[in-house]
Design brief:
340 residues, D-Maltodextrin-Binding Protein, domain 2, eight-stranded mixed beta sheet, globular, 15 helices, binds fe (iii) ion
Length: 340
């Protein structure tokens, strides 16, 4: 082999594959989170480190499938999503590899990450009951299960069961109550609907304010976002509802997690690990709570005062993996129970 060829091969090794010449200055993430707060954090990371963050947005199952299909040629370094069930799906798809950074692992308690550290939590959110302050007293509320009672006939508002948030809630009830009780709950709950399922979480609060129904389920961060919205209709709507944390005397309020996984074949692993360390560290965690009203996973971070004002609450004691494990069954029970 001639000296020039050796030099050429050496340069190739140094520079990496074609198109990756600037790889050491970038990190690519595929994200299914849809919040403005995230881009603010990526900009901050870029400013602090000089590492450019390229975010590709999409729906979670499609992003997982894309990374799987791209295999060794993928440009994705990180996969970010909401929902513990989806994070489990990403792990099962074999697209992730364990995070070993001691710094990152010290930021995220064990019950907020995958048991093999293939994903780490970023935030949690609670799925609470919201109710008309005019037509419902908090004392009338207790558990998710009790909303199947005929007392609520014609008074419950819900979004379509295609929502991951309600699929994971039902998956949690399958784990805690058993399949038969969960199936009966869907029938009773759906039997109490005031109108066919419609809209997103925010729309349920608006429809309570408009008098279309009295009770709905919402993720806590949407309540914070609406209270601080520039749209006066959203502020008015959410001011008309009370917030109730269900099942405090029993199995606890349902929480779900959003998180980040390290893509096995990503081209910029060191930068990816740096971004995971950054996102789980106190400053980014403070911002996620302050700007998006989510619960930080890092116990040293500050919970937004809006969330803190609700006080500590009892959460369901289940493995986030169980949400994914029971997702297909949950979808089947929705169909059987008439929750479209
Ligand atoms: Fe959301």
């Amino acid at each position: 082999m001639g000296r020039h060829l050796i030099l050429f091969l050496g340069l190739l090794l140094f520079a990496g594959p074609p198109g990756a010449a600037h790889a050491q200055r970038a990190v690519n993430l595929y994200t299914a989170r849809h919040y403005e707060s995230d881009q603010v954090l990526y900009d901050l990371f870029e400013k602090e480190t000089g590492i450019k963050v390229n975010a590709v947005s999409g729906n979670a199952p499609e992003l997982i499938e894309r990374i799987r299909r791209e295999g060794g040629a993928t440009s994705a370094d990180l996969f970010i999503t909401v929902d513990g069930g989806v994070l489990r799906t990403a792990k099962e798809a074999g697209i992730l590899s364990p995070v070993t950074s001691e710094k990152a692992l010290a930021n995220v308690p064990q019950n907020r990450r995958d048991r093999d550290n293939q994903w780490l939590g970023l935030t949690t959110r609670a799925r609470v009951i919201v109710y008309s302050k005019e037509r419902v007293r908090a004392e009338e509320l207790s558990t998710y299960e009790a909303l199947a009672d005929p007392k609520w006939q014609g008074r419950i508002l819900a979004r379509p069961s295609s929502s991951l948030y309600d699929q994971s809630l039902l998956a949690s009830l399958i784990v805690l109550d058993g399949e038969n009780e969960a199936a009966a709950w869907v029938k009773g709950f759906a039997g109490n609907f005031a109108r066919p399922p419609k809209g997103n979480d925010r729309a349920q609060a608006k429809d309570i304010a408009a008098g279309l129904g009295d009770v709905a389920l919402m993720n806590t961060y949407y309540i914070g976002q609406m209270l601080n919205s520039k749209d006066p209709e959203e502020v008015r709507a959410v001011e008309a509802v009370g917030v109730f944390f269900p099942s405090q005397a029993g199995t606890g309020t349902h929480i779900n997690i959003s998180g980040v996984g390290l893509v096995k074949n990503g081209p910029n692993r060191d930068n990816a690990v740096k971004l995971i360390e950054f996102l789980t560290d106190v400053e980014a965690q403070n911002r996620l709570s302050a700007d998006n009203y989510e619960y930080p996973v890092n116990p040293r971070a500050r919970t937004h005062e809006f969330l803190a004002s609700f006080g500590d609450f009892k959460t369901q004691d289940i493995d986030f993996d169980d949400l994914g494990r029971n997702n297909a069954l949950a979808i089947r029970l929705f169909a059987q129970g008439g929750w479209k």
